[in-house]
Structures are given as structure tokens and as C-alpha cells.
Amino acid sequence: MATIADVARHAGVSSSTVSYVLNGKRPISEETRRRVRRSVAALGYHPNAGARALAGRRSHIIALVVPLRTDVYVPVMMEIAVSVTTAARRHGYDVLLVTNDEGPAGVRRVATSGLADGVILMDVELGDKRVPALRAAGTQAVLIGLPDDPLGLSCVDHDFAAAGALSADDLADLGHRDVAFIGYEPGVYARHAGYAERTLAGFRERAQLRGLRFLHRPCEGTYEGTAGTLARILADRPETTGFVVQNERAIGPLLSLLRSGGRPVPEAASVVALCPDRLAEQHSPALTSVSGSAQELGRVAVEQMMSRLAAAQRQEQPVDERVLLPPVLTERQSSGPAGATPSNAKDPS
Questions:
Q1: First to last CA, the chain
Q2: Are residues 75 and 45 part of one domain?
Q3: Composition bias, kind Polar residues: at what positions (predicted)?
Q4: Fewer CB atoms inside 10 Å of the end CB: C or N, the chain?
Q5: What are phi and psi of 276, to 5 degrees?
């Protein structure tokens, strides 16, 4: 276990300076305080009861709990993290990155350590077990995601239900009647990831309202996994002409498999992807997509945190904000009117 002397050596300061930073009894330059806090975080030093007097003061650090999973799309998660860091710096705050591999225990440890003034949580599940840990710790918290019970917390997320509905509307407006929703791998739904569950629910509700016949199939996202998913869809519903994809890894394989199977896009099949615009534009044909700004998620989360911290500083009850960012549908070259007959349709597997 790290000691205060270890922190001092790591930060290149004296032990007394570390103590002053932790207890706030003497003025220390901002540069030195920041260096000491980084050393505390790097070494996993836990202040003792005396040092925890810092809890009544501001550390000007926000902890950001980022996902450590193989089933998340890393570029988007990193874009959110960079946005949080940039927005925090504009308010004079540093960001301490914490992985979510420890679950509720890790969140509890960070929230009660006195290292951070507040915690921003990413990759939120509907019944996320980390949320009660945040409430119990009494720290200011913001979620990038929407759990089933957000009481006592501020939340910001994309309106994934609206995104699912937009994708169903787009295909229905083009005259498609048999459509398939290709989602993330089964584990994402098993852990009830909010973004996946809410998108599917929004799609399902709107598809039923528009009279679409639809299938939902989870997909591993590899070429072989996508081939198997597409084969099952066409075996169950060979008339399928519209595809909604919420799985970044499956997009490329799906376009290739449809083309090689005699169902070229958009001539014989339409594809609408729920993905970042940058990714949609990289494919050929460029994808009609439903997207939202990852940067805006990070910015709003930090603004919510600043609002909560300011209220707490005034000894007022923070307002629990809930912000859902509206999705944007961008028509490109991967969707077209229904009615084309697949040419030389083959088994995609």
C-alpha cells in the first residue's frame, strides 16, 4: 500500500507538501497541487482520516468512469471522454479516468476517496448496480446514459428511442414492408445496455405503428457472425428488403454479403445505420444514418456537473436534470424505394 512518502517521491515534492495539499492548511501553487493529486491517483494512495478533511474542500478533479468492454465501439467512447476532458478544463477542472472493471466497488472507492469533487459515469445500464453506490456515497454524480431510476442524479443521453423510430419511419416512407433490425451481440442485451434496449424499443413501437413486419437479430459483428445472422433473417423472412443496423462492426460485412448475395444496396435492399456520420460516410455506398453528437454528450455532462457542484457549494439541493439529445437522420446512398427484385439471390452464408 502506497504511503505519503511514496506520493512525495513520485510527485517530486516533500511529504509536508503532500500533506498540505491533502489537508488544505497552507496555500500551494495550482501546478504543485495538480502534480500531487496525479501522483495520489497513479499510486492508488488512500488518504487517512486526517487527510479526508479535504472532503469539505474542492479538489477541482472530476472522475470519469469509462467502459472497459470488448462490445463497445471505442472511437465513440473516446470522443465522449475527450469532450468531457476539454469541457472540464474550460471550468478549471482536471479529469481522472477510471475504468469500470471494478463495478460498484470501484465507483464507491473513487466517490469516497476525496480525490474527486464528482463522478461522471458512462455506459449506463437500465438497472445499473453502480447507481445505488453513487447515491450511497453522497457524491455529486452525472450519468451519460439513462437508467431506469435516475432519482438524485443528473443524466444526459441520446434519445435512442427516437433514433429507433426515425429508422423505422425512413424505411416505411420508402415503401419497405419487411424489415430486419440487426443489433449488437447478445451480451449487450443480456446486460441491458440502455442505448441498445431503448433503440430497439423505439424501433419496435414505430414499426408496429407503421404496419411493418420486422425481425430483430443480435449479431456478433464479425464477417462470419454477420453472414450467419443474415442467412437466418432471409431464411425466416426472404421478402426482407430493409435493414436497420445498430452494430458498427457488422456494417461492412452486411454490405458485402448483400452485394455478393444478389441484393445490392440500394438497388435491391436498403440499409439504415445507427452510427456516427464519419463512419457512415466511409462506406460504399455512403450510408443513410441516424446519429447524434458524442461531443455534445460530453459537454452537457460537464455543464450538469458544474451546476450540481455550484448548488452544493451554496448548500442548496442540486437540480436533477434529464437531457435527451434529439437524433438526426441523414439520407445518403444506401436507402431507396422498395420494389426491386433481388438478382440471382444466393444464400449469404
A1: 54
A2: no
A3: 331-349
A4: N
A5: -60, 150
Whole-angstrom distance, CA of residue 178 vs CA of residue 338: 10
pLDDT tens profile 52-83? 434 456 789 999 999 877 777 788 899 999 99
Q: In terms of domains, do 228 and 260 share one? A: yes
Do residues 167 and 274 make contact, with C-beta atoms less than 8 angstroms apart?
yes
For residue 308, give every residue at least 6 positions away whose Cβ sits within 8 Å of its Cβ, in sequence order, or none. Answer: 118, 140, 141, 142, 154, 318, 319
Amino acid in the structure at residue 147 = P
User: What phi and psi, each to the nearest 5 degrees, are found at residue 146?
Assistant: -125, 110
How far, in Å, are 92, 212, 242, 306, 322 from residue 270 at the CA level? 47, 14, 5, 44, 34
The type of residue at 110 is V
Assign residue 268 the CATH number of its domain: 3.40.50.2300
CA angle 91, 291, 149 (to 5 degrees): 65
Task: Give the strands of the sheet with 322-325, arranged side by side.
Answer: 94-99, 61-66, 118-121, 140-144, 154-158, 322-325
User: DSSP label at 1?
Assistant: -
Indicate the pTM of the whole model. Answer: 0.79
Cell, residue 245: 443496423
Q: Answer yes or no: are the C-beta atoms of 273 and 334 closer than 8 Å.
A: yes
141, amino acid identity: A
8 A C-beta contact, residue 252 and residue 284 = no
Residues 205 and 117 in one domain: no
Calculate the dihedral angle through the C-alpha atoms of 59, 153, 136, 55, rounding to the nearest 10 degrees. 10
Range of the domain at 260: 160-292
Do 268 and 233 lie in one domain? The reply is yes
Other Cβ atoms closer than 10 A to 36: 24
Which is nearest to 122 in space by CA: 161, 152, 164, 83?
83
Indicate the number of domains in the chain.
Answer: 3
Please list the residues that pair with 4 across neighbouring strands: none
